[in-house]
Design goal:
single chain, about 190 residues, three-stranded antiparallel beta sheet, 12 strands, about 40% strand
């Protein structure tokens, strides 16, 4: 007669926290968020110029950690935008945009553009040094480790986000020697 292995004690089981509602696949949003917070990510500022907002238009900015290189030939990058966000709506209409890879000294810039519920980006750019990209017209943040101007190649809806793949049109290295700003476990961090 074969013995059935004993069940592990309840303390060894991974149980969802109280209030965590699992998705159909069994992983709750809280559990997924906690796991992904352990993946260190670089921090960028995605910017675009909205020519339709007022007589001279308005600059729009958004802090992102879901940004990566996709291809070297042709040079492609990807950024993930929350569906229905101002940046998602704008990049659906405006084909060119920019990315500034933030330096560790630019934590205040990242925090400023990560705020939810803001009315206008005009005040957010007021005391941030930047130049205007020649291809995109979007702000390129001064002191960034690198800047890129991009043209949207494709958009892919993926759950509650849209993945925007852009062809890199220009690259700049305003401050190539600084350390990167990173995001880990829900906080901005420095390497080392």
């Amino acid at each position: 007669m074969q013995k059935t292995p004993a069940s592990p004690p309840v303390t060894d089981l991974a149980l969802p926290r109280a209030g965590a509602v699992p998705h159909a696949e069994g992983v709750s949003a809280d559990e997924f968020r906690a796991a992904m917070s352990r993946l260190a990510a670089g921090v960028v500022l995605v910017t675009a110029h909205d020519p339709d907002d007022g007589p001279r238009g308005e600059d729009v900015g958004m802090t992102a950690t879901a940004f990566l290189s996709v291809s070297l030939d042709p040079p492609l990058v990807l950024v993930s935008l929350r569906n229905g966000s101002r940046m998602d709506d704008l990049l659906e209409e405006v084909p060119v945009w920019a990315v500034s890879v933030l330096a560790e000294s630019q934590r205040h810039v990242a925090g400023r553009f990560a705020m939810k519920g803001r009315i206008s980006d005009r005040l957010l750019f007021a005391d941030v040094p930047y130049t205007r990209g020649e291809e995109s017209g979007a702000p390129l943040i001064g002191g960034a480790l690198a800047t890129l101007e991009c043209r949207t190649e494709s958009r892919v809806v993926a759950g509650d986000h849209t993945l925007v793949i852009g062809r890199v049109l220009t690259v700049g290295l305003p401050s190539p020697d600084g350390g990167p700003l990173t995001y880990f476990r829900g906080r901005y961090r420095r390497l080392g």
